[in-house]
Amino acid sequence: MYAYVGGNPLSRTDPLGLWAFSVQAYLGAGGGVNVSWANGTLEITGQIGVGIGAGLSWDPNGSPSPHAKECGSGLIARTTFNASAGLGFGPLSTGASYVNAGENVFDPSPKSDVMDWGTGGYSSLSLTPIGVDNTPTTSGFGFRYGVSLSAEAGSYSNW
Fold it and tell me: Which of 84 and 5 is assigned the larger pLDDT?
């Protein structure tokens, strides 16, 4: 019981320490920073590119990208496409986001041919079902969107 908090429901902390933090802003040109941690692996990347939109996120279940290896340290360089949209009306909200990242060009793994740049790219689609805010004073409506194409570089390390 209470396995998700290591048997201590009072602390309500994740014993694996999974988390991810991201901040991005684009109005024509822009950039951002991403920091994530899981099971001893820290990944930090920065990005520059073009797009429109801004965002700040904290994901308590986030983790490093598939480009971060499970042991050792290394560099990451990739292109990334991000798109997101959301809609809210009164206490109801929904949204979706899509990420497509290119290959990590710094991956030292054996190459099959001259055009093999390393660890393959990845993509993910996140759909947020309709959520309800139970705050009695919730009212109004809103729409958010963002799209960006960026070059991202950084590193990962395991402790």
Answer: 84
Structure tokens at 104: 């990590």
Distance between CA atoms of residues 38 and 47, nearest Å: 21
CA distance 78 to 110: 18
Q: Transcribe the chain into DSSP letters.
A: --GGGTT-TTT---TT--EEEEEEEEEEEEEEEEEEEETTEEEEEEEEEEEEEEEEEEETT----TTS-SSSEEEEEEEEEEEEEEEEETTEEEEEEEEEE---TT--SPPSSTT--SS--EEEEEEEEEEE---TT---EEEEEEEEEEEEEEEEEE-
pTM for this prediction: 0.72
- Residue the block writes with tokens 């060009």: 105
Q: How many other CB atoms sit within 10 Å of the CB of residue 76?
A: 23
**pLDDT tens-place string over residues 80-126:** 998 988 888 877 888 898 999 988 888 766 666 655 555 678 898 98
